[in-house]
Request: fold
Amino acid sequence: MAEQLRLMAVHAHPDDESSKGAATMAKYVAEGVSVLVATCTGGERGSVLNPKLDRPDVWANIGEIRRAEMDAARGILGVEQAWLGFVDSGLPEGDPLPPLPEGCFALQDVAVATGSLVRLMREFRPHVVTTYPEDGGYPHPDHIMCHKISVAAFEAAGDPSQFPELGPAWQPLKLYYDIGFSKARFMALHEAVLAAGRESPYEEWLKNWEDRPDKGPRVTTRVECAEFFPVRDDALRAHATQIDPDGFFFQVPMEIQQRAWPTEDFELVKSLVESPVPESDLFAGVRETARAR
Reply:
């Protein structure tokens, strides 16, 4: 009997899992894959981005509210979820930037913080791990720290000499970076919206893209998951403090999104199995290994 496939997605804050790779996770859940979201922080220092909820009572209880939102999103996606227990660093603003708050996630010693994720990897035993690129996908200090501990834990989890107190070693087989926010994707959506005779919400954003770090195409793996885009959007709306239901993310009709860019995209950065790229499956090469166990 084949071993059940397991996917771990490591994210910085509650809501990140619903805006990055959510349709892919929902697709794999529907196929019987066990999916665990590891959330590094509680989002305690996040902003309230939904103007309808920008109220003193929401700000006063933002930590508890964001945990409840995560519970709702987890149920919509059908995934398991675990908190690593670190404190949100917040996004520093100003010139010069202010120092990060003492004790926050981004100021943790990487070698120490990695242990929390190693423990979870050894308990859950994922075959595949997804996380952020080196720049965090965007330069939030928690996203960059999430990248660092994910890469370190991928290597350490399978090494019995590292963190021996955290349980038997388990080596994940593939590590991916989420490449959802690519210029190519937003250009395709922009052009599809214009072709449909509608106003594009991406026009100004694309004009200013030169100001954003864009390292060009890094995609190795495109997962067809358009039928799960509505699930993704429902999960994102569950993070009600973090997303305006009338805002940018929801202005392109679903049928246009599904037709213009029907995949979620990833970069394969480490593989211990034979898996030639380009791929269409995060478990390419892993399925055969799981059957052999």
